[in-house]
Amino acid sequence: MDDTKRVLIVDDDKHISELLKLYFEKDGFEVSSCFTGDAVMPMVRAMEPDVIILDLMLPGLSGFDVMRELRRVSDVPVLMLTARSDTLDKIIGLELGADDYVLKPFEPKELLARVKAVLRRSQSATPSANLTEEKQKDIVSYPDLTVDRIRYSVRVGDREIDMPPKELELLFFLTSHPNRVFTRDQILEHIWGMDYFGEQRTVDVHIKRIREKLDVIAHPLWQIKTVWSVGYKFEVKDSE
Questions:
Q1: What is the pLDDT of residue 198?
Q2: Is 99 inside a domain boundary?
Q3: For residue 237, what pLDDT band results from cuts at 50, 70 and 90?
Q4: Domain-embedded: residue 76
Q5: 119 and 139 part of one domain
Q6: Of 124, 146, 179, the domain-final residue
Q7: Domain span at residue 84?
Q8: Which of 124, 144, 162 is the last residue before a domain boundary?
Q9: What is the CATH number of the domain that holds 144?
Q10: What is the mean pLDDT of residues 145-156?
Q11: By C-alpha distance, which of 64, 65, 60, 68 is closest to 34?
């Protein structure tokens, strides 16, 4: 079976695209490129990339617009590129579902390392097809909430909730340890791994998105609670 990873490079600077193409192909990747935001979704459908390198400033749809469109249909890992150091841009990119964020100018070797790290994290979040007697350990249930790491599904009340792998893994981690407080660093290490290049803000962004999805119904017996200056916990209350 061919294990070659496909990377889609989206940048209107053809010199950058060509340079990255050389680096990634030398490392064994299959590389495709496009130069406008409008061309991304057709390319994604055609090639089904394993990872996308996406510039923010593009002709046509911006990188932010592309992320919005992409996350409606795909959980493919995305690294966003930008020449601007604006923190707000970074926060918006993460909130829209980007997996990492790289400032220009950058070293191609560093970008390659980040892509590999994102792919490792993505693969570790893929559910195993080999279901064993331990499958019950992969399902956590509370009143009106079931997190199933085998089928990668979340049910809130009678609704099936769509969650990307990292959000589901984070929710599963917290719900598997009710009433235990975890620091952001502990969460980063467990969910994103030791080789994660990002920052603690990533945890806050994912928690915010998870809460928004859980709040489709009232859930008085449990909540993801912020423990100020420490981190987060999944708080479970007595039903009596």
A1: 59
A2: yes
A3: confident
A4: yes
A5: no
A6: 124
A7: 6-124
A8: 124
A9: 1.10.10.10
A10: 88
A11: 60
Per DSSP, which regions of 40-165 are E strands? 51-55, 78-82, 100-103, 139-142, 145-148, 153-156, 159-161
Whole-model pTM above 0.70? no
- State whether 118 and 137 are in the same domain: no
Q: Is there a domain that residue 1 lies in?
A: no
Give how far Cα 159 sits from Cα of 31, 75, 146, 155, Å. 39, 20, 10, 6
Tokens of 96: 């829209």
Percent of the chain with pLDDT over 90: 45
Structure letter (DSSP) for residue 93:
H
| Interatomic CA distance for residues 221 and 240, integer angstroms | 10
Contact 154, 163 (CB under 8 A): yes
What's the domain count of the chain? 2
Structure tokens at 43: 């390319």
DSSP, collapsed to helix, strand or coil, labels residue 195 as coil
Look up residue 36 and give its amino acid. Answer: T
* Residue the block writes with tokens 């994102």: 118
Distance CA 219, CA 237 (A): 10
Q: What is the pLDDT of residue 196?
A: 55
Angle between helices 201-214 and 165-175 (to 10 degrees): 80
Residue with structure tokens 């969910």?
A: 191
193 backbone φψ class: left, alpha, beta (φ>0; ψ -120 to 50):
left
Look at strands 100-103 and 78-82 and give their pairing: parallel
Question: Over the stretch 30-51, which tens digit does the pLDDT of each residue have?
Answer: 999 999 999 999 999 888 899 9
- 11 in the same domain as 120: yes
